[in-house]
Amino acid sequence: MQPEHVDAIVITHTHPDHVGNLSRADGSSAFPKATVYIPEDDFAFFIRNEPDLSRLPMPEDFRRAFIANIKRSVAPVAKSAVLYRPGSELLPGITTIAAGGHTPGMSAILVHSGAQALLITSDAAYSPLLNIDNAWRPGPDLDPDSALQSRRRLFDRAATDRIPVLGFHFPFPGIGNIRKTDNGYRWVTASWRFDG
Ligand SMILES: [Zn+2]
Q1: Measured in angstroms, how far is the CA atom of residue 103 from the centroid of ligand 1?
Q2: Where do the domains of the chain lie?
Q3: If you measure from the C-alpha of residue 152 to the centroid of ligand 1, how many angstroms do you get, rounded to a whole number?
Q4: Staple 101 to which of 57, 116, 146, 184, CB 3.0 to 4.6 Å?
Q5: Alpha carbon of 116 to ligand 1 centroid (Å)
């Protein structure tokens, strides 16, 4: 598969590690045929305006590079991107779920086909040990209280409906299930099988 074969890219939030591959080193679009979907509130906050990230625990020069990376990465698709508000089936089998807090517009994604589903929690949690088994809050959450509410909504849904979960930054295999406990949640990692 070549980059030209990709026809749709759904961005969950515009942090630099989630949009970096949109542009080539020369500033052109890395996926020239793809329609890129970006959460409207993230686009307004990070791309249209100068984001205030002063509450995030990072040195000033890192913060400046962080913002510059976002703008540079999104630049080649800024005019053509489709801005979306999470909460609907964006593409067949790809339903976006509002999960703001980590960034203003962050979306989780429910990938579904027939009776099967996978809940992609984006950056609602970084580590099952720190953010699921323990309720420690990720430092890069822009609005920690909204992020906490979003996290609980996603975890409750995954636990109640028994939907397998994929977290972007989780250790291998990245997939598991979330169970509710008396005072929180517990991560049950999927056992990985090599079928090759
Ligand atoms: Zn993030």
Answers
A1: 7
A2: 3-84, 92-189
A3: 17
A4: 146
A5: 26
Q: What is the mean pLDDT of residues 91-109?
A: 98
Q: If you measure from the C-alpha of residue 15 to the centroid of ligand 1, how many angstroms do you get, rounded to a whole number? A: 5
Distance (Å) from CA 102 to ligand 1 centroid = 7
Residue 84: CB partners within 8 Å, gap ≥ 6?
37, 38, 39, 40, 90, 96, 107
More confident residue, 121 or 1: 121
147-179 pLDDT, tens digit each = 999 999 999 999 999 999 999 999 999 999 999
- Which residues have CB less than 5 Å away from ligand 1 (the ion)? 15, 123
* 196: pLDDT strictly greater than 80: no
Q: What's the CA-to-centroid distance between 2 and ligand 1, angstroms?
A: 26
What is the whole-number distance in angstroms between the Cα of residue 115 and the centre of ligand 1?
29
pLDDT at 193: 82
Q: Domain 92-189, what architecture?
A: 4-Layer Sandwich (3.60)
Distance 123 CA to ligand 1 centre (A): 5
